[in-house]
Structure formats: C-alpha cells, structure tokens
Design goal:
3 helices, three-stranded antiparallel β-sheet, 30% strand, six-stranded mixed β-sheet, binds inosinic acid, 175 residues, alpha/beta
Amino acid sequence: MAQLRVLFTHERIQRRVGELAAQIERDFAGQSVIFVGVLKGATIFLSDLARRVHLDATFDFIGVASYGRQKQTSGEVRLTKDVEQPLTGSNLILVEDILDTGLTMSYLRKVLMAHQPHCLKIAALLDKESRRIVPIKADYVGFSIPDEFVVGYGMDYAERYRNLPDICVLPPEMI
Ligand code: IMP
C-alpha cells in the first residue's frame, strides 16, 4: 500500500518558521503588521508564524476558490471571503501555504493592493518555483520544493491530511 513520505518534520518546520519570524521582526521593527492568511491552507503556518513575531499585530483571513477534489489548478481564481478590517496604510503580510503557478498570489496581490496598504509582503511556506506561470516572488520563503504534491501542516488533498504535523509527499498512486 502506498504511504505518505515525510518531506519536512514538524521540528524542521518550526526551526524555519522561527527564522522567518526573526526576519519579519527585523524588517518591521517598531511597527505594526497585519497578517492576512489565505484559507484554509495557511492557517497553521500563520498561527505558528504570528506567535513567533513579537510585534504589534492583528490577523485577517481571505478565501479563494480552492483545488477542491482536483490536484490541478483550473487557472481561475475566485474570491470566496474578503478581509474584514481596514487595510489602508497598513503593513500587510500575505501568508500562503504554497506558491505554485502563482495565479492565486498575483490575483490576491491585486485585490489587496486595491486597499492601498503602506506595503504588501508575501510569506509562503513552500515555493514550487518550477511550476510558475505568473512571475511572482515571495519576500519570505520557508522551503523551495520540487514539483510534488504535498499535504499536512494545513495543506490538503480533497480536504484530508491538513492536521498532519509534518509536511509529506502524497504519492501519485494515492491521488
Ligand atoms: P497557485 O495559484 O497555482 O499558485 O496555487 C496555490 C494554491 O494551490 C496553494 O495555496 C494550495 O492551496 C494549492 N496547492 C498547490 N500545490 C499544492 C500541493 O502540493 N498540495 C496542496 N495544495 C497545493
């Protein structure tokens, strides 16, 4: 029977999240930030990251139409939940689980820039650079990964596996 293969253990993720948090703290020293998490995949990353950033901070969440039961993006991104607080003049940190084709991030960047924040940074836990269709780079990247489908630590396949503490590769025969 096919099994999940651990790519990054929970301990390794925590160490890297701590490094990203330190970078954010340095970049925004003495300022406030708003973390905007992309539902639902980024929720666990956001909660770990935000707790390591010792700055004045608030959270918000934004929702986009997800992969659902399919592995491939349809190329179409649709807003399913908007942010709830005023973002004008704020230091926004958009928190995403994976930067894949870049379609979601470039769409969300446009949506959030319309709120006229003071600045907008992107924090992506994983980056599948080889899959990029739209040129977009994250300011804070946890790990670069090859073109494999991963689950756990918030990330799903057909809504399953989000609660795994590690990040694992889902073998093609399980898809
Ligand atoms: P993009 O618009 O193609 O960059 O897609 C980004 C979104 O696709 C991510 O936020 C994830 O929700 C989903 N996604 C991409 N690759 C994976 C994966 O390997 N596992 C789980 N979700 C993925």
